[in-house]
Design a protein that fits this description.
Layout lengths: L3 E8 L3 E4 H11 L5 H12 L5 E4 L3 H4 L5 H27 L8 E5 L9 H8 L7 E5 L6 H14 L5 E8 L12 H9 L3 E8 L8 E9 L7 E6 L2 E6 L3 H18 L10 E4 L4 H12 L6 H10 L6 H10 L8 E8 L3 E8 L1
Parallel strand pairs: 4-5, 4-6, 11-12
Antiparallel strand pairs: 1-7, 2-3, 6-7, 8-13, 9-10, 12-13
Helix pairs in contact: 1-2, 2-7, 4-5, 8-9, 10-11
């Protein structure tokens, strides 16, 4: 029995700014700092390869001193709105009735909600009362693919079922106004807010790329490299400078054995569906892929247009490729990295 990804949809928040629009806001935030430091911060924003980003709050509000409680209240309110919008959009795109969903997975790491987003969506959209739900909250940028893994395993064991994976993230809600460290500055420069929904099915008649295989890959002794630290002012970004080099050093072990287990090599892959962590990671991985005759142009374009939206971002890349209607027999490789430190991989075939 095969499990297929039927469709992907995205939903953007109501606020957006170009990088050039954000630069003047940095002057107020950095007021009183050394001129050399101010120039360095602006250079980071200008060189982040992000032209525009979206947010659940006005950018001026992001740079306003508020409590963790206030920011998390905005997060809670807005992710419910975005989650409902993106699920409705995906269902309409697939032509599915909401009551045909058997499994709902919601993904987010940029705020705290109990009950989780899925419970609100069940009520707002009158999903079935026996729907199985799973919130995924602590896997960061890797969680979009993690959700697909969990949905696939559920559907593989249950024929004639349907699942929705909904990723809603707001990194702007985690911005630390009093933190002038490089991790906070770099994350502010590369991250944006957004939502995406991926619909999967084990019905024979439902069409879409089949999930051929999926695996996780865990880096030993690398918990310190990426994540959040919960402080009195909110979720403080942890982002180690060694991340790109660590990915590069493990790249062969992540990609080649996984493909070999499916009697494939990189030349057999038509579509690289890679999560855009940031400019440095893209540069690192692009150099590795280019040596194998591949490109990650869609990944670069998503970063440019929207920034890194944590778990939702790889689904934006997938949507771009699926909307181009790949030919039957073509293959795609999904790849993302997240806290742990870990990599998630999915092999698709149209």
């Amino acid at each position: 029995m095969s499990v297929k990804i039927v469709t992907v949809a995205k939903q953007l928040p109501k606020y957006s700014r170009t990088t050039n629009d954000i630069l003047p806001l940095l002057d107020g935030w950095l007021d009183g700092k050394e001129e050399r430091f101010i120039k360095k911060v602006k250079k980071i924003f200008e060189g982040a390869a992000v032209d525009q980003r979206y947010s659940i709050m006005d950018p001026a509000e992001v740079f306003t001193a508020t409590s963790f409680e206030d920011k998390n209240d905005i997060y809670t309110r807005e992710v419910i709105i975005l989650g409902e919008q993106v699920l409705e959009k995906a269902l309409k795109k697939a032509g599915w009735d909401p009551t045909t969903l058997d499994y709902i997975i919601t993904v987010s790491c940029t705020g705290i909600m109990i009950p989780s987003l899925d419970s609100y969506l069940i009520n707002k959209m009158k999903l079935r009362q026996d729907i199985v739900r799973l919130p995924v909250t602590e896997m960061g940028c890797a969680a979009g693919i993690s959700g697909i893994l969990y949905a696939k395993n559920f559907l593989k064991s249950n024929p004639d079922k349907r699942a929705a994976v909904i990723a809603v993230e707001s990194p702007t809600a985690t911005f630390q106004l009093d933190d002038f460290s490089m991790p906070n500055i770099v994350s502010a420069a590369i991250f944006g807010d957004g939502a995406a929904c991926c619909l999967l099915s084990s019905y024979e008649e439902d069409k879409g790329p089949e999930i051929i295989d999926e695996q996780m890959y865990h880096f030993y002794d690398a918990e310190h490299m990426m994540g959040f630290k919960l402080t009195n002012s909110g979720l403080q970004m942890v982002l180690d400078i060694e991340v790109p080099d660590t990915i590069a050093s493990h790249f062969g072990a992540i990609i080649h054995p996984f493909l070999q287990q499916n009697n494939l090599e990189i030349a057999d892959i038509n579509h690289m569906i890679f999560h855009p962590g940031g400019k440095k990671i893209i540069t690192t991985v692009e150099s590795l892929f280019s040596g194998l005759g591949k490109n990650i142009d869609d990944t670069k374009e998503v970063l440019k247009r929207y920034g890194n939206m944590s778990s939702a971002t790889v689904l934006y890349v997938l949507e771009r490729i699926m909307d181009r209607n790949p030919k039957s027999g073509e293959r795609g490789l999904m790849l993302s990295f997240g806290p742990g430190f870990s990599a998630q991989r999915v092999l698709l075939q149209w």
